[in-house]
Amino acid sequence: MVANISIAAFVWLFFLTMTVFMARVAWLYWFHPDRAPRINLTKSSDPSVIRGHVRGILPFVGFPLGLTVLFPAILASTLVTGTSHTVFTLIAGACIPGFMLSLAAHATVAWFNWPKFLAPPHLRDETGDRVVEASQRASNRPRRGSRTRCPRTSPERSPVTG
Hints:
The chain has 162 residues and is mostly helical.
């Protein structure tokens, strides 16, 4: 019993520490970008991907925050009965969509830089990574009516002419 409580306390302290650290990083990126630590939220070495995750740092803070609230709410809902059990269960139930929504918001800010109010003020005028990739793919596609033909649609192989 004591080992279970100490493991639970360690896990909760880990989530709390992660929340405080990420909130501080988001605050520094928001107000003092030159003093913010250069953390890497991805395994990619592509600078545009890293920059996208930096843009989405504020919504990302909702993920460890949701876990920090979720963990004691689940623990408390198992220990109490009656109305308190219902309240803690509702809090735990609200945390799961909350941190999933924060991850979705992080992805949209990192990929598309939308919504702009979730990006730090000095990064709001940037284009998202996926927008740049889509425009590069569109510029590499052959135009309609161009002289290049696909091998499947060449007149020699046309199913109509034989």
